[in-house]
């Protein structure tokens, strides 16, 4: 009996040792195969390894092959369809029978995404298999595999809610084990995948804050960008990030500087100390900046509203020197940044104009509209560039989205650059897309065509219908600008003006002085009767009259006089406001105001005395129409002013041929 037990024990021990020996041999073989795969210098060599008998029979061979394939594919060589099919079939088979370890699953997913640049059916098929296998074994994943797997699927743009839900739970459960690199990588993955996970981002924020001293400049910038991209608010984390960036600023490279600046500007969190530090560091190493860093840094500071003249001078100098290397997108971005930051740089804009005109046929619709907007916003005139922009934009108008359409039209109208062919092309492109325009785009487009004086009845009919449908979404500025545009264009649309009336009544307290004046002017110019609205406008204007400028005053007076709407209280208030600002009134406003009070039959001797004195002092600057309006106004009002009429007589005699 004892002998039997000894034999049995010996047999069991021998079996265990044989299993361990076999496992050791398998491990050695797997490692040898992995080394062979990693040593393959070409894709042909890589697949030849398996052709010689080493099939995809282990997680090591599958994962290593995909990883090596991803590296070799970057050299321009590509695998045959048959080779890819065999590898995909083997991967699916290994995933289905759970032969892939957590590390192999993560590496395989990463390799697939890097190697298969085309997201075809085979790629989706193998990713589906890997997603199912990974979700089922997620508890076996460590922090490194979690981060790598999440980033692989996010990079592929492969929607797999079930997998990402399991990754959320696994990440939250193991968050304290994550290294700084894994924290940043996971945040980036979930932000890129647009998978809602506020609890995970809260956990990432806490863990990152605790380990922030271990983050290098790259990771600090990546983490900030990820939270911004995910639109996850975390003020405490960003305060910590700002201090960490400031402390490690000496180690920041140009790419780190531009990335950090972009992240903090996008987060809309004020951090003047950090931006000052970034500015100083950027100026000190500006000659090392890549063209992309130049454009990104300029745009970040512009968006943050952080003034830094020294930085913008350095950015302008470096951009001018590197301008020939700029892509169309970088040219447009740089122009937009300097315009938004209100940083005058004539030499830079001249250089941008020449470079952009030379590459104009390579600009996409968004870049075309952005650079047109930028030059107008910066107040930099460039007829040659706008001629090139007009030609290129007209040719591509059908591809413009609503925002690009309205922005381009606005820019050309604001610049006063005549381009009938472009406006015709925009009109045709807009008519087909007008239902997709938002209220601001509708308003801007109507304003542009009216300002440019370009008739387009069909477009205005389409704009009227679309605006009336969405009138409740219009802000006061949109209401007043659109009403102004239709009145200026002389396009009759009673239904739209009825809608404007209702919307204005409902939002009148939100209107600023210019919006009140423009709305009154538009209704008067269009001849659209609306006594109730004019009463509302009068009350609102009286309440805000201290904030009216000279143009608001004269426009409001003109509008009420033209509409024939009596409002003694408003005209008394306008008279006082006008008298107080009389030194700021130009010839047009002087004559318009006098005309309006005379037309309205509102007596205001003090105002007319003030207008007479101011007009006589600058009578030589009056144009013929202003002279005749002023004479008519004083005569109609019955206000005697010998000094003014003597001045009017001399001025009229001097301009008699033009009257």
From TrEMBL:
- Give the GO terms filed under biological process for this record: mitochondrial RNA processing; regulation of mitochondrial mRNA stability
A single GO cellular-component term on record: mitochondrial matrix
For this protein, the record's Pfam families field holds:
RESC6
Where the record annotates domain RNA-editing substrate-binding complex 6 protein, the positions are 210-451
* Source organism, top-level taxon: Eukaryota
One GO MF term, please? RNA binding
InterPro entries per record: FAST_kinase, RESC6_dom
Q: What is this protein called?
A: RNA-editing substrate-binding complex 6 protein domain-containing protein
């Amino acid at each position: 009996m004892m002998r039997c037990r000894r034999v049995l024990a010996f047999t069991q021990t021998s079996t265990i040792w044989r299993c361990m020996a076999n496992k050791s041999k398998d491990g050695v073989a797997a490692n040898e195969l992995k080394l062979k795969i990693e040593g393959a210098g070409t894709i042909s060599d890589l697949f030849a390894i398996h052709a010689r008998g080493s099939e995809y029979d282990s997680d090591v061979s599958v994962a290593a092959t995909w990883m090596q394939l991803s590296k070799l594919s970057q050299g321009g060589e590509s695998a045959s369809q048959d080779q890819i099919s065999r590898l995909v079939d083997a991967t699916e088979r290994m995933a289905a029978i759970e032969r892939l370890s957590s590390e192999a699953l993560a590496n395989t997913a990463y390799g697939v995404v890097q190697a298969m640049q085309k997201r075809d059916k085979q790629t989706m098929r193998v990713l589906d298999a890997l997603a199912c296998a990974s979700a089922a074994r997620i508890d076996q994943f460590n922090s490194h595999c979690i981060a790598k797997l999440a980033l692989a699927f996010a990079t592929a743009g492969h929607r797999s809610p079930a997998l990402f839900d399991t990754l959320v739970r696994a990440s939250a459960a193991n968050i304290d084990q994550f290294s700084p690199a894994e924290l940043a990588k996971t945040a980036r993955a979930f932000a890129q995948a647009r998978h809602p996970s506020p609890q995970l981002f809260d956990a990432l924020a806490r863990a990152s804050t605790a380990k922030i001293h271990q983050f290098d400049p790259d990771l600090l910038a990546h983490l900030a960008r990820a939270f911004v991209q995910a639109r996850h608010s975390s003020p405490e984390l960003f305060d910590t990030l700002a201090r960490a960036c400031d402390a490690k600023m000496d180690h920041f490279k140009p790419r780190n500087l531009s990335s950090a600046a972009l992240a903090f500007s996008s987060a809309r969190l004020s951090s003047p100390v950090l931006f000052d530090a970034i500015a100083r560091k950027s100026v000190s190493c500006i000659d090392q900046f890549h063209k992309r860093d130049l454009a990104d840094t300029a745009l970040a500071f512009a968006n943050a509203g952080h003034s830094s003249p020294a930085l913008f001078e350095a950015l302008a100098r470096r951009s001018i020197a590197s301008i020939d290397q700029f892509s169309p997108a970088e040219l447009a971005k740089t122009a937009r940044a300097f315009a938004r930051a209100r940083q005058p740089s004539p030499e830079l804009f001249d250089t941008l104009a020449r470079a952009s005109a030379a590459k104009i046929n390579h600009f996409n619709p968004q870049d075309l509209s952005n650079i047109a907007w930028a030059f107008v916003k910066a107040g930099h005139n460039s007829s040659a560039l706008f001629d090139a922009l007009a030609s290129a934009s007209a040719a591509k108008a059908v591809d413009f989205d609503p925002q690009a359409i309205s922005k381009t039209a606005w820019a050309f109208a604001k610049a006063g650059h005549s381009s009938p062919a472009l406006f015709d092309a925009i009109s045709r492109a807009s008519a087909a897309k007008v239902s997709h325009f938002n209220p601001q785009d509708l308003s801007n487009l109507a304003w542009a065509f009216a300002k440019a004086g370009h008739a387009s009845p069909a477009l205005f009919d389409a704009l009227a219908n679309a605006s009336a449908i969405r009138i409740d979404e219009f802000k006061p500025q949109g209401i007043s600008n659109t009403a102004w545009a239709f009145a200026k264009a002389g396009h009759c649309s009673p239904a739209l003006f009825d809608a404007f009336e209702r919307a204005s009544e409902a939002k009148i307290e939100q209107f600023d002085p210019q919006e009140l004046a423009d709305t009154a002017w538009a209704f008067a110019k269009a001849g659209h009767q609306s006594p109730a609205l004019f009463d509302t406008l009068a009350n609102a204007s009286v309440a805000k009259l201290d904030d009216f400028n000279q143009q608001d005053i004269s426009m409001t007076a003109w509008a009420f006089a033209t509409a024939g709407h009596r409002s003694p209280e408003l005209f008394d208030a306008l008279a006082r406001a006008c008298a107080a600002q009389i030194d700021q009134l130009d010839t047009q406003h002087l004559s318009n105001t006098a005309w309006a009070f005379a037309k309205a039959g509102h007596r205001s001797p003090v105002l007319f005395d003030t207008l007479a004195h101011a007009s006589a002092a600058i009578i030589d600057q009056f144009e013929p129409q202003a002279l005749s309006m002023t004479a008519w106004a004083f005569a109609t009002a019955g206000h005697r002013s010998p000094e003014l009429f003597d001045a009017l007589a001399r001025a009229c005699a001097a301009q008699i041929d033009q009257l």
